Amino acid sequence: MRNTFRVKEHVLANAASGMAVHDDCKVKFLELKTKRSFRFIVFKIEEKQKQVIVEKLGEPTESYEDFTTFLPADECRYAVFDFDYFTEENVPKSRIFFIAWSPDTSRVRSKMIYASSKDRFKRELDGIQVELQATDPTEMGLDVFNSRVN
């Protein structure tokens, strides 16, 4: 009887600490990582469905500036961005950034849901190389990206 209680307690803790992740999130991330099919992906938590879904796919030709236009000024999001850069030896490379976007103006409930679901969601996306937490655009500017790759 005691073990049954522990199992239920564990399941409830997991349910409270994260949303389900729609399969499409993993499929599209894998396409970004292996085929470079996308420059970025913006993910949104659908509270009614209790799951993370793909909100926007950025074409490979889209820029960092295009990407930032899809992060709402007053709502939280998760995003991944495939960042191209050159090493000091002028070798082209890329890094996959995970961004936890949580603007100060977003609802407290939303911030809490995104914060408590982040680690579980990140584990579903195998291949993230750099993580950024941002509450305003200056915390995830190109200068920040450049400083995190070297």
From TrEMBL:
Keyword check for Disulfide bond: no
PROSITE patterns (UniProt xref): ADF_H
Molecular function (Gene Ontology), one example: actin binding
The keyword Thylakoid is assigned to this record: no
GO cellular component, one term: actin cytoskeleton
UniProt keywords, alphabetically: Actin-binding
GO BP annotation list: actin filament depolymerization
InterPro entries linked to this entry: ADF-H, ADF-H/Gelsolin-like_dom_sf, ADF/Cofilin
One Pfam family cited in the UniProt record for this chain: Cofilin_ADF
The ADF-H domain, residue ranges: 16-150
Stated family: Belongs to the actin-binding proteins ADF family.
Protein name per its UniProtKB record: Non-motor actin binding protein
